[in-house]
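pasting for ref
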Amino acid sequence: MLTSIVGTNWGDEGKGRMVDLLSENYDIVVRYQGGNNAGHTVINEKGKFVMNLMPSGICREDTVNILGPGIVIDLEHLYGEVQKLAEKGVEVTPEHLKISDRATICMPYHKLMDCLEEDRLLDKKFGSTRRGISPVYADKYMKKALRMGDLLHLEALKERLGGLVEWKNLTVEHGYGHAPVLADEMFQWLKEYGEFFIPFICDTTEYLGDAIEERKSILFEAQLGALRDIDFGIYPYTSASTTLASYAPIGAGVPFAKLDESIGIMKAYSSCVGEGPFTCELFGEEAEQLRAAGGEYGAATGRPRRVGGFDVVASRYGTKMQGCSYVALTKLDVLSYMEKIPVCTAYEIDGNRVDTFPSGIEELKCAKPVYEYLPGFQCDISGCRTVDDLPKAALEYIRYIEKEIECPIKYVSVGAERDAYITMF
């Protein structure tokens, strides 16, 4: 079984907890795109873990975890994640974690350029996490990036790095007017954090190809959601990578493979980190209550998330773009305090009701939410473990969403812990 777990919205839907839960049934978990610009939170018997780069199956001793060629890796950050895992008793070994030799290295100068550009944009900024993701992907496609396999040949890397730094300073020093990047400092950074990972580097394409032939089960873990996809998201307020399930085999390093199923993850309400249109956004006390109830602060940045009612238009679109076989609905328990639950059923654009997600940024900027309110269930559902345990209003809310997004809901989470979920069928 080759399965992708993907976000259907703006990201932060709860993919990490679902990967941690479902990875019990898989031999391998692969991260296939993005970098440390988003976080997946996992809570299990070993504690609470926030992982930005590490695949969310890392807490399971028998699961092999892979960082594929579609990933961009901040070595210093990844090293820090390894240390934090070790502090809680999770040992990361080359048998437990394998890193593609084709994965791209996110250098300190990429983070610098990310910050310089956001500062230059002032009130027109994109809401970047300032972790170098867009600059490193840009360098990748300009064929001016370093890859993990280069760490196996440090002398050749050092020579090439000099030319890259010289080219980068044309922008850093002569464009932004910042102090130049120093090649020696960059090389020392690569040695300090890169040498640790040399035993982890391998040809993951060969490894996964063999695994597929042996009929091992593989879980492909995405970062962010469909609305942050570089091509099909809310451009230019997107990530720099392809967040869709269809990219999973490519970003994992096995473009010849075909997925068996795609599991879309969506919240029972909406949340968004960063800038750009967010049609269903709530404000004032209504937003503060929802943010507090859901603990809506970025796992990677700590930034307060913008929140809103469930967005039917965006979620139906995201479900379609991800080719979802079925959906996992997360954080239903968060809505327990509500007397009535807000749902954005359509957009109003230039006086017209719109039921399909607009592809253009200008339409989204002027879109207004059309809200309806469903009855709340107003009781603690965190202990529910079967469909019959759910109050009638909660079950009706699930069925309503299922109908509107035109995709079955298989799992419903009612808490952050590994076992706090209900299987609907």
